[in-house]
Amino acid sequence: MTSSDASTPDWQQRANHAAQSVTALFGRRLLFLPNTHLAAVTWQGGRPAHGWRGKLRTLAEGTALLNPWHYWWQAHYVDCLVDTGRRELGSGATPAARFNGPANPSAGHLASRLVTGIRLRNAFTVVNNYYDDMAWLALATHRLDLLAAETRRPGRGRNARVRRSLTLQFDAAGTDDLGGGVFWSKKRDFKNTPANGPVALYYARTGETARAQALIDWLDATLFDADQHLYLDGARAGTAGEVLVERTVYTYNQGPVLGALLELGGDTNLARAALVVDGVERLLTVAASTPGQGSVLRCEGTGDGGLFTGILCRYLALAARDARLPDATRRTAARLVTGTAQAFWNGRRTVEPGESAGPAPDASVFSLHANTPAARTYPAGAAVELSTQLQAWMTIEAAALLTAP
């Protein structure tokens, strides 16, 4: 399916459609437990359930039980639902404003059920071995708590307990090894941008500005590439005690650091934020598939990489709305977000009749690459990964943020 919409897209409605599609295709209860929600990590379209093995497989997929466990994918699912909940709030937070119809749960309510599902599926705890995973959930539950406060919904005590537990983990992960920063995992042998960026942003948003600035200072001193204007992946200690830098550049690493720079503010941080937007435009874009559309953000495949570009778009949208940044920087950030979102929207395909085992009226599948149609990357019958669909949803939500009242 391609879009022939008017010249002024309704990004709010497009974001609702993305939310409806992902929740319809991937959303499940956990073990049929009431008040729980979880996403299956794959959706297999067009695969009939033959025989008792097929029926057992369908049952297991339907309860989100036997799926591989990807904690941080679920955390980003919470964040996407909070995006949708904020749009519901902007429309009055009435049942009629709910993204999936007045008879279904609000996005905030569904996100709260999802946090419950994550804790249960993660062996009755929100702690795991990776500090970046936990940071994504901490950021999402913080935003969910703010949404609950504005809508006067319950669950804030649970959200606070989650954050207290995770904050203790982050505090323990920060050491003077390698000059500062927090570790990536409990192996405590690598400090990287994927952990330090979201932890710094979480500290900044929860009032721990000194801790947040210390992490940003460490990132700037250790992992910022002044030529590229981008943050490198990470650092570890060599056998002689020297600092060895892993120089790979990932799209998503730039996003949370950009968010932390904006949250902290100040001339130095804002100047660095503008440089990051410049580096993203110069080095992390590819040509759009539609002639004349210009460039879109590059995407990084399936698996964990399927989330990367969506995460970057979330924080580019914040840069585009930040009046403290130069106008040219804001225009660049907005163009990257809306151009990439438009490419995902243009490249979507409709779920065909009979392709989904459950109800999925008018649901869409989005491509894993913004510059390639979904009909090529996810043809009918292909296994579709949750990460890639969250990526498109996040990107479309970012575009919706730019056009919000």
Strand pairing plus helix content: what structural class? mainly alpha
Terminal Cα span: 29 Å
Overall morphology:
globular
Low-pLDDT segments: 1-6
What sequence of helices (H) and strands (E) makes up the elements? HEEEHHHHHEHHEEEEHHEEHHEEHEH
Provide the helix percentage.
40-55%
| Strand residues, percent | 5-15%
Major beta sheet, specifics? 3 strands, antiparallel
Q: How many H/I helical runs?
A: 14
Gyration radius from CA atoms, angstroms: 20 Å
Protein name: Glycosyl hydrolase
GO molecular function, one term: hydrolase activity
Organism: Pseudarthrobacter chlorophenolicus (strain ATCC 700700 / DSM 12829 / CIP 107037 / JCM 12360 / KCTC 9906 / NCIMB 13794 / A6)
Keywords: Hydrolase
Architecture blueprint of SSEs:
Blueprint: H1 11-26, E1 27-28, E2 38-39, E3 42-44, H2 51-62, H3 71-90, H4 107-121, H5 131-151, H6 156-173, E4 191-192, H7 193-205, H8 209-222, E5 224-225, E6 230-231, E7 234-237, E8 243-246, H9 251-264, H10 267-283, E9 285-287, E10 295-297, H11 308-320, H12 327-346, E11 349-350, E12 364-365, H13 374-377, E13 383-385, H14 386-402
Helix pairs in contact: 1-3, 1-14, 3-4, 3-5, 3-14, 4-5, 5-6, 5-7, 7-8, 7-9, 8-9, 9-10, 9-11, 10-12, 11-12, 11-14, 12-14
Description:
The protein is mainly alpha-helical and 405 residues long. It has a domain at 176-252. It is 53% helix and 8% strand. The strands form six sheets. A three-stranded antiparallel β-sheet has the order 4-7-8. A hairpin with a 7-residue loop joins β9 (285-287) and β10. The chain is globular, with a radius of gyration of 20 Å.
